[in-house]
Design brief:
heterodimer; A: alpha/beta; Lysozyme-like; 2 domains; four-stranded antiparallel β-sheet; 15 strands; globular; disordered C terminus; B: 331 residues; alpha/beta; Nucleotidyltransferase, domain 5; five-stranded mixed β-sheet; binds adenosine-5'-diphosphate; binds magnesium ion
């Protein structure tokens, strides 16, 4: 046929490389755009959003690009309630939700190459020291619907669905050769402590060595009160549903900010370990998050009870999307707030995530015809009921265990 | 503020018609002229009549040139073909008066007053038939004329204009098609970002001339018949109607084939995984039954993209101009 294919505008070649914005971006931007009833304003918003992203298209990796894309959208003033152009909320089901697992790149397949009493070696170079491994409580956890429409679980799980990254915040020595003895000593003390308290599944010491402490089939005491959700499924108190990986590091430096909190060896170790775990349990990249993102204080109804990795977690280097930008479900699902301290330690991307969650909450409130404080109170009550039910459940379970003993 | 009096105009420069869109009160206002002219021998009486009826025209020595909407009717009365400043989406290289007539036609839809600092966004076809150089030449010349009028000028792909004019509900995501006289223009955008576009060379003119060739009528005559209530309902009593339906199918099938080719050539479009809307516009989409027939062809083609709906533009003749205006306002 006498026809050629072209891309409109200045470039006239067909854009083979075009790819849709990532799902999360699309949902957030699309949702915001729909709040704008004037067609011209809506087009302007979408175009500006898109051009903010395309400027960076070629120079950066796609994950970083997404972060900037998202940032671009956030910097563009969203329609405000006082704007006469804004129509009342129309489409309820398009509010942003974390992206689906299927939209994420699959981790490469990783398999066990060799196992000895002391270590395991995997096909991606991962080596896990296993001589400190202990078991703990069996892993079994409720799964909730992501819209939290009911406080009863929609199902139960027994395999890890996610990873929470921690920093140990333990004592540190300067990372220098002369300090080798002290570095080793601190690392070993840490391992003993973690083993005793069943604090994490994995510890990555400062030399990048990976120790399995609590075996993967058990829960560990790593996440306490915590909340996360993605792909339609929500999880509360992640000890049993998520694996805990701790990096021997201090991420909370206070005011005097130093260099990177972890060593290159640790970054590499975290990457290969993450690959293996994602491959083994088919863990969604969206469910690989930091402790600061998931930790909550029920009594204060605030997010960020723990603040380790509130910023600068190297998602990109670990082969993960910038999950900081995902609105925390505890905020929009349970009406939690955050304090100024948390805002201060949070990195720019996490702050954006918080802002998005706040906005989603506002929209949800107006959709349900409630003022924000009333809506928030209702969500918080939902959380309290859910936790009460959960506690009752595990109390019964413990009773059960005792009978069997 | 000084700016409030500045005009912003969307301009659809089609092979068949030139349409200007402006914002008016709550909605949009349109001004259209047929992109055609006819020359008739000069006579005082004729000139008086034309002037009295405010038919756009000009006198060149022994000839009167009538341009715009009345040109077709007058040509039909005199049993001659209209002359066309454009063909197949771009300036007609075979028409020595093309630039002069385009300038007149533009003046008649845009108004005479100087336009210093006013904005205009005009549509251009996607690459297709005519060589790319043709489009570049065409675009450069139109741009120059509009600049000379004093406008701030930008251009916009025609298919994309349809999307901007019609698909706000899907956040400017979907396929927009303009079935025009010279060409059919197709574009796909995703959240306002153009992803692909192309044009096919078979439009209303192709239908007219092909049907004229097999029936022995003048193309201008066929066109008037076609525009007078022809419908794609499958029952054709007249030979002209029969012929029209054959070439209508040909035009639609070319577009469907183009879509298939374009979608399959793209790495990510087939992976969209969600349905998108498709909107039909342009004068050639007007006959009754057009949408149904097109949908049937789409279904038969089993494209790698699914459509949430296939619908006619709210006003098929003005969708492009409206989209150009929306783009200009959004700038
Ligand atoms: N009512 C009608 N029925 C069928 N065809 C029509 C009708 N009105 C206009 N057309 C055809 O539409 C074409 C022009 O459409 P238009 O969108 O104005 O084209 P262009 O973009 O080329 O200027 C011409 O071929 C004309 O004959
Ligand atoms: Mg047109």
């Amino acid at each position: 046929m006498n026809q050629r294919i072209g891309r409109p505008g200045e470039e006239r070649s067909f854009d083979l490389a075009w790819r849709p914005p990532r799902r999360i971006v699309e949902q957030i931007v699309g949702w915001r755009a729909r709040q704008i009833s004037d067609p011209v304003e809506r087009l302007r918003y979408l175009q500006r959003s898109a051009s903010g992203a395309s400027k960076h298209r070629h120079s950066l990796g796609w994950r970083r690009r997404t972060a900037i894309f998202l940032l671009g959208f956030l910097l563009i003033p969203p329609p405000t309630a006082s704007d006469a152009n804004i129509s009342p909320l129309r489409i309820r089901e398009t509010v942003p939700v974390p992206g689906e697992a299927s939209a994420e790149p699959e981790p490469p397949p990783v398999w066990l190459v060799e196992r000895t009493p002391d270590y395991e070696v995997y096909s991606n170079g991962l080596r896990i020291e296993t001589r400190f491994t202990v078991s703990y409580q069996p892993r079994k956890y409720p799964i909730y619907s992501e819209d939290w429409s009911q406080i009863e679980p929609i199902g139960w799980g027994a395999e890890p669905v996610g990873i929470v990254y921690h920093s140990t915040e333990s004592d540190q020595a300067p990372f220098e050769e002369e300090q080798n003895r002290k570095l080793k000593y601190l690392g070993e003390a840490l391992l003993r402590y973690v083993r005793q308290h069943k604090s994490y599944h994995y510890v990555i010491d400062r030399f990048g060595r990976i120790f399995r402490i609590v075996d993967e089939g058990s829960s560990a005491n790593h996440a306490g009160y915590s909340v996360w959700a993605s792909g339609g499924r929500a999880f509360v108190n992640l000890n049993r549903s998520f694996l805990g990986i701790a990096l021997e590091a201090q991420t909370q430096h206070g005011d005097e900010v130093q260099g990177p909190a972890i060593t290159p060896a640790q970054v590499h170790a975290a990457r290969v370990l993450t690959e293996m775990l994602r491959s083994r349990y088919r863990i969604s990249a969206r469910n690989c998050v930091t402790h600061a993102q998931v930790s909550v204080s029920p009594s204060a109804a605030r997010i960020g009870y723990h603040t380790d990795w509130a910023s600068d977690f190297p998602f990109d280097e670990l082969g993960l999307p910038d999950n900081y930008a995902v609105p925390p479900p505890s905020l929009y699902g349970f009406g939690f707030g955050y304090d100024s301290l948390f805002e201060k330690v949070a990195g720019v991307s996490l702050r954006n995530g918080l802002q998005l969650a706040e906005e989603r909450l506002r929209q949800d409130a107006s959709a349900s015809g409630l003022a924000v404080p009333a809506y928030r109170a209702r969500l918080q009550q939902r959380y309290r009921r859910l936790i009460a039910a959960l506690n009752a459940e595990s109390a019964l379970e413990e009773n059960d265990d005792e009978k069997h003993d | 503020m000084r700016n409030t009096t500045k005009e912003v105009i969307g301009l659809d420069i089609g092979t068949s018609r030139i349409v200007a869109a402006r914002r008016e009160n709550d909605g949009y206002g349109f001004e259209a002229q047929l992109n055609a002219f006819v020359t008739i021998p000069y006579s005082r009486i004729t000139e008086n009549v034309l002037t009295k009826e405010s038919v756009p025209h000009c006198v060149n020595g022994a000839e009167i040139t009538v341009f715009g909407n009345e040109a077709a009717r007058i040509a039909d009365l005199l049993n001659v073909e209209t002359r066309r400043p454009m063909t197949r989406g771009v300036l007609n290289p075979g028409e020595p008066q093309s630039l002069a007539q385009i300038r007149r036609l533009l003046t008649s839809v845009l108004g005479e007053a100087p336009k210093q600092g006013h904005k205009v966004c005009f549509t251009v076809p996607a690459p297709g038939v005519g060589s790319e150089e043709n489009i570049t030449y065409h675009e450069t010349m139109i741009r120059q004329i509009l600049r000379d009028f004093g406008y701030e000028v930008r251009s916009l792909n025609e298919g994309l204009a349809v999307i901007y004019g019609e698909l706000e509900d899907s956040n400017y995501t979907g396929v927009g098609i303009s079935f025009g006289g010279g060409l059919c223009n197709v574009a796909l955008a995703y959240m306002s970002v153009p992803v692909l576009s192309f044009s096919t060379p078979k439009g209303g003119d192709f239908i007219d001339s092909s049907a004229a060739a097999v029936t022995g009528e003048l193309a201008n005559r066929v066109r008037l018949v076609k525009e007078d209530g022809f419908s794609l309902n499958g029952h054709y009593s007249e030979k002209i109607h029969q012929a029209l339906s054959v070439y209508y199918d040909d035009m639609m099938q070319s577009v469907v084939n183009g879509l298939k080719e374009a979608f399959e050539a793209s790495r990510n479009v087939p992976k969209l995984g969600k349905k998108i809307p498709l909107v039909l516009s342009g004068g050639s989409a007007l006959p009754a039954g057009f949408r149904d027939r097109f949908e049937k062809l789409i279904q038969e083609a089993s494209l790698p993209v699914q459509f949430s709906e296939i619908r006619l533009a709210s006003d098929p003749l003005y969708a492009t101009a409206k989209g150009a205006l929306v783009a200009a306002l959004a700038d």
